[in-house]
Design brief:
Largest sheet: 7 strands, mixed
CATH architecture: 3-Layer(aba) Sandwich
Strand content: 25-35%
CATH topology: Rossmann fold
Number of helices: 8
Distance between the termini: 34 Å
Order of helices and strands: HHEEHHEEHEHHEHE
Strand order of the largest sheet: 3-2-1-4-5-7-6
Structural class: alpha/beta
CATH superfamily: Vaccinia Virus protein VP39
Bound molecules: S-adenosylmethionine
């Protein structure tokens, strides 16, 4: 840990993940959520103002106290009660089949064992429930993918454990989900940013 990871990374994440194109994608990711929802890696609460009216309650899992404190105003303004129920998406306290839906945005890149977290998500989703995800990850362009793998050690160091080369849709399928919707594209920006900007929004059940 340390000051950089504890104090600076949550602020950098908040800044870089609240741009207009990313917020537009977030709206797509939360569409269709309803009932009791679990959000893993709640961060600074950038989705909190976007939950549809069909959502009754959001249970948040977030290890960073700084991120949680940063989210205070957004939680207070949200139309839905948000409660912090845990610190680690790899070990959820919830009983099996507790949630109607799970939301993960820019979190499966950072959770140390994403496969384990996805197993937990499957366990706590009720039958017919869905995982909504919005994640950056491995580009289908081999040249960009090579750069992502080269950059991973540095990225892990400066971005709180985040990796660029995780293939999230593949991880989701490997965890036993069917991917029911998937849209992937680069965010707008210069070509040199492509290792960071391949983003997939999907729904899996
Ligand atoms: C890049 S930030 C994204 C935050 C937020 N999901 C968003 O969309 O803005 C990654 C988040 O994953 C969280 N995280 C890291 N390890 C985690 C774990 N084991 N379980 C749950 N969340 C974790 C971090 O604390 C951080 O809030």
């Amino acid at each position: 840990m340390g000051i950089w990871t504890d104090r600076v990374v949550p602020r950098l994440a908040d800044r870089s993940l609240s741009t207009r194109p990313v917020m537009r994608l977030r709206r797509g990711a939360v569409a269709g959520l309803g009932g009791r929802v679990l959000e893993i890696g709640f961060g600074s609460g950038l989705n909190a103002g976007l939950y549809p009216p069909e959502v009754d309650q959001v249970d948040a899992v977030e290890p960073s106290d700084v991120g949680w404190e940063m989210s205070e105003a957004r939680r207070a303004a949200a139309t839905v009660p948000v409660e912090r129920v845990g610190l680690d998406g790899q070990r959820l306290a919830a009983q099996d089949q507790t949630y109607d839906a799970v939301l993960s945005t820019f979190t499966l890149c950072t959770i140390p064992d994403a496969t384990r977290a996805l197993g937990e998500v499957r366990r706590v989703l009720r039958p017919g429930g869905a995982l909504h995800f919005l994640e950056h990850g491995l580009s289908p362009d081999p040249g960009v993918g090579r750069w992502q793998r080269r950059l991973d050690p540095l990225q892990r160091l400066v971005a709180g454990g985040c990796e660029l080369s995780r293939d999230v849709p593949t991880l989701v399928r490997a965890a036993g989900f069917d991917v029911l919707e998937l849209e992937s594209a680069y965010l707008p920006g210069p070509g040199a940013g492509r290792p960071w900007t391949w983003v997939s929004r999907g729904r899996a059940g």
